[in-house]
């Protein structure tokens, strides 16, 4: 089974920090050429750290990917830099708490836009580029591309404060399965990874404000700890590599065993 990413070109969204940054750096270390994409241009500049020379496997794209024009520009910038697109990792995500009994609460609209529609639209546009690329290359039977969506265990668990986040996550999981079926004839695989608590900058900040949450999260996670971003990257590599060529439409859960229990932990984590 080949899990090599050497020579592949990937786009990773949310790549300025946290999970997206860990994935993007891992891909570069494994020989891929990677477009780091994020709306936070300041953090993105720090992430790429000037390593974007003509011969570098790293490029950066800053823009609001909820806008179709920004998506199109991202794809064009990637092709201009690396000539092709083989992998898309939709790692950009956000978590807003909801007031489930307030009809004026706008969190659902925001979460659907950020965590569902951006990933869905970018996947659709990227798939079209991949298909056109395969036709141009005369690729009639080999793998054409892989898309990986980063989702959440919240999509499978009920927690009132996460009403919007959970709905958006469940919708993204269904979009993953639907796209997998739609793109299978084109030899593009689509999979997802559902994660639980990961020690990102946002969780670190939340734990500083709510120190009791750490104990609650660890107690309700069978493996007894919070995952590091680096613990997700091998799974993303597997789903992106040609060695997973018969895997599509799957949601791989990486949660330290929490999904085995009928419990929820601290809001959002």
Structure summarized in a few sentences:
The chain has 269 residues and is of the alpha/beta class. Helix content is 43%, strand content 15%. The mean pLDDT is 92.
Description:
Belongs to the short-chain dehydrogenases/reductases (SDR) family. Keywords: Oxidoreductase. This protein has about 270 residues and is of the alpha/beta class. The chain has one domain: NAD(P)-binding Rossmann-like Domain (Rossmann fold, 3-Layer(aba) Sandwich), CATH 3.40.50. The protein contains eight helices and seven strands. Helix 3 packs parallel to helix 4 (about 105-135) and helix 4 runs parallel beside helix 5.
The CATH superfamily name is NAD(P)-binding Rossmann-like Domain
Range of strand content: 5-15%
Q: Pairing-aware structural class of the strands and helices?
A: alpha/beta
User: Architecture, CATH level 2?
Assistant: 3-Layer(aba) Sandwich
End-to-end Cα distance, whole Å, is: 34 Å
Reconstruct the topology from this structure.
Layout: E1 9-13, H1 18-29, E2 33-38, H2 41-48, E3 58-62, H3 68-82, E4 87-90, H4 107-137, E5 145-152, H5 163-183, E6 188-195, H6 201-209, H7 212-219, H8 230-240, E7 251-254
Parallel strand pairs: 1-2, 1-4, 2-3, 4-5, 5-6, 6-7
GO molecular function: oxidoreductase activity
InterPro entries: NAD(P)-bd_dom_sf, SDR_fam
Protein name: 7-alpha-hydroxysteroid dehydrogenase
Task: Provide key terms for this protein.
269 residues, alpha/beta
């Amino acid at each position: 089974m080949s899990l090599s990413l050497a020579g592949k070109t990937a786009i990773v969204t949310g790549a300025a920090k946290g999970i997206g940054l860990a994935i993007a750096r891992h891909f570069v270390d494994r020989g891929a050429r990677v477009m780091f994409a994020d709306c936070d241009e300041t953090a993105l500049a720090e992430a790429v750290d000037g390593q974007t020379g003509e011969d570098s496997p790293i490029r950066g794209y800053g823009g609001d990917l909820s806008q179709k024009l920004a998506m199109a520009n991202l794809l064009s910038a990637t092709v201009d830099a690396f000539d092709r697109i083989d992998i898309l990792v939709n790692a950009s995500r956000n978590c807003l708490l909801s007031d489930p009994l307030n009809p004026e609460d706008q969190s659902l609209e925001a979460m659907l836009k950020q965590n569902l529609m951006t990933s869905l639209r970018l996947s659709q546009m990227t798939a079209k580029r991949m298909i056109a690329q395969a036709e141009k290359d005369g690729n009639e039977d080999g793998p054409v591309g892989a898309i990986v969506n980063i989702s959440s265990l919240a999509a499978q668990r009920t927690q009132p404060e996460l009403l919007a986040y959970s709905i958006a996550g469940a919708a993204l999981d269904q979009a993953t399965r639907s796209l997998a079926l739609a793109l299978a004839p084109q030899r593009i695989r689509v999979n997802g990874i559902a994660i639980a608590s990961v020690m990102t900058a946002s969780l670190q900040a939340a734990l500083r404000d709510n120190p009791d949450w750490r104990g609650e999260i660890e107690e309700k996670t069978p493996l007894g700890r919070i995952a590091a971003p680096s613990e997700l990257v091998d799974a993303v590599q597997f789903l992106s590599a040609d060695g997973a060529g018969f895997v599509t439409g799957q949601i791989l859960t990486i949660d330290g065993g929490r999904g085995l229990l009928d419990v929820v932990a601290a809001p959002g984590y």
